[in-house]
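Entry type: protein chain
Record version: 2
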Amino acid sequence: MYKQSFTFILLALLISLPAQAKIKIAVLDFELNDITSLPNTKEEQKRTATFKPLLEQALSNTGAYELVPVDTKAYSKANGGFGYLFHFNDLAAQLGQQAGADWIIVGQHSKPSFLFSYLMVHLIPVQPKYKSSNYEIKLKGNHEKVSQHAVNALSKKITEGLVQANTPSNTH
């Protein structure tokens, strides 16, 4: 009950911000890190491709964010290969800044087993006065409903992290 009330208050605070004060967020495509014995099947690649639009929709539904697209050529130029931007927050931040975002989300779908997987994201500020945050959600199963529930939980964690990051005591 407390957690629901807290989330409602956080969302109400974010929604009450003036329209011009919306936080600008760029979300990159999730990369599939499939280390099972039958990796990178077409079905799992398709599933992984759904996480970005699902997350963008969940964030958009709060009314507190402006989603900013990242230029495909700029992304290709910045990305040195699999996991590169996931591991180098400073380069991801530069890419987000080029896109005009305040924050950039870099994600991976890690699949160590056929029974479960993880959505892992780095929420990275483009300005160094804020700290980056890492979030992880465990998915048990591979049904569409499981994916939607995991993305909604991830969106809630991101929202809470952004509210906390924008609290005056948490800036440098």
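Comment: The two ends are 33 Å apart (CA to CA).
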